[in-house]
Amino acid sequence: MNNGKPIVLATFEDIQFELKDRIVKADDTWAKSLYKKSVSSERVNNIKAQLDMDCGRFDDVPEDANTKSELYAPLVKLLNSIIGASGNSKSRNGTRQAVSTKGKQLHKRVVESQVSPDIVIKATGSSFELPRAYRVPNVDAHIGYTNITTAIELRLDSTTNDVERTATKEVQRMCISAKEIFYQQPNRLFVYALVVTEERVRLIQFDRAGALYSPLFNYHDDPDTFIRIVVGLSSMDEAELGLDTSVQFQVIGDMKALGTIRVLDPKTNEFTNYKMRSVDPFLRREELFGRGTRMWDVEDADGTRLYVKDAWIDPNLTPEYIILLKAKGVKGVQQIVDYEDRLGRPYGEIRYFRPRCDPDYFPFVNKCFQRLVTVRYGVGITTRNKTEAEVLGALYDAIKAHERLLDSGILHCDISLGNILFGGPNAPDGLAGILIDLDLAIKAQYDKYPIDGRTTGTRHSHSNLQLKGRGRPCKPAHDYLDDLESFFWVLIHLIYDQVNHDLTWAHHLINTIGHGDQKESADAKRAFLTGDLEPSLIPEGWSKKCKTLVIAFHHFIDDIVIEKEEIVGEMDRVWDFSAMQALHSQKRAHYQEVLDIFEAALPAHRAPLARTSRHNV
């Protein structure tokens, strides 16, 4: 878990990579249709009547600007004229104001870049606050990604066009602002941005499926569409801005304060309110696309501490709450309290707020918003301020929980550092370690369907064979042995990545097995399993019994990998399914062997480990 703080700031090159194959051009009708239901033609006409226009042109906008600087003041004036005429500038719910950010640096938390928008619509209200830029040099203290509804970039009309390469670069630049808005406004569902010249405007949308942009259109020739977009982007209805209004903050002195998160019961159509224990989610993924996971620390009306998890999932997959309901009562597995599935609701599926696009241009994958409320446990598994016995005991109980889950017919498929929690203070027997995050879990049917091309999970703890087989025609289905191997890689991270040591090769190993390149990761893991692991190769600070555990687990996983490799070969042709089934028939023996390895080490000394650090990775 990242505890709400990303480890590495994204570069512009990272953004370009993240956007690859995720940018699509919408047709001419999209921008014209946006906000058409909420901003009526009558309202547009009333606003237009209050604006200075002459001969089909907004008066103050220069027709032949020579520099971008000439556009700031007239466009800010025009935007504020529209916002004021619409009635959006001030209400009991907040304020909206277009502001030039020329020469200002907006405080960034996820992107390493000097690029900031040229104009923003500054906002106050439930979801907005002043930027948290305390003692941060060279950033604006009054305007930031925490208190804007949208970001606007200015360009001279001669420097832009609808050529794909040009539009793509504009989307990439605006993605800097989009990533920051998503991160610093954690209840964001989608983000709109604008590119504006002295003649034309381009609308851009960012959501968890990708980015899309409109063709440029002349806003002097089509003032109705421009007015409608500006009114929508300054709306007092936060849902129209792309904010999740079921997350309600209090605002005290221009800063967010503890509020509530609501969960709708579809049967009674009534809400249950959960009180925030922190203004920020303790986990929020900084990636723009994907699940966009947020996890909040809350309590119910009785004061019982719980977790709320928000995520966007593929509606074609089995929802996590279905898996959790099946796992109810399974000891050592995350227990569900409440849930909300927004399938079929206007802001609950991306397809409802994204226009249809050419499927040949971009294979759009719809996503659905889901919220889970679960029992609260301890922190993610770590060696920090924990004894060796606590760490190994948590892993031991998590492995036992994994077997129970498998016996209930569910395979986890995403064993990782972030998905194993300590059971919390005074955890009952057998609950020292808890398995969470079943959003990738599947029905255990690897013997019924032995070949499966899917590879799910977290890269650093993927099994070697699942990585190696990705893209091959006869990759074996993910099975419980893959998950047991993932437990091994979690252990390796704890042993080598969270204590001080001077084993240079181990730092390289940890970096490589978590590398984005699947072949490098698979090769590094296979090489480590093939090599001899001696006690001298394990950092000091771990007991002799713990080192014996690591070596024995290493031997067990190596033997399993060899046996599976002999069965599946290069995975380029059909292999002997019965041989794999025979291996799986030893399931109970496999789990028992791993548990026995841990049991032999559990009586180890309970003194704290050497002072932990991650700086040497």
Which strand-content bin applies to the residues? Answer: 15-25%
Total count of strands: 21
Gross morphology is elongated
Q: What structural class is derived from the secondary structure elements?
A: alpha+beta
Structural features, described:
- It contains 16 helices and 21 strands.
- The chain has about 625 residues and is of the alpha+beta class.
- Strands 1, 2, 3, 4, 5, 6, 7, 8 and 9 form a 9-stranded mixed sheet that branches. Strands 10, 11, 12, 13, 14, 15, 16 and 17 form an 8-stranded antiparallel sheet that branches. A two-stranded antiparallel ribbon has the order 18-21.
- The two termini are about 15 Å apart.
Which features characterize this protein?
617 residues, alpha+beta, 16 helices, 21 strands, disordered N terminus, disordered C terminus, Kinase-like_dom_sf
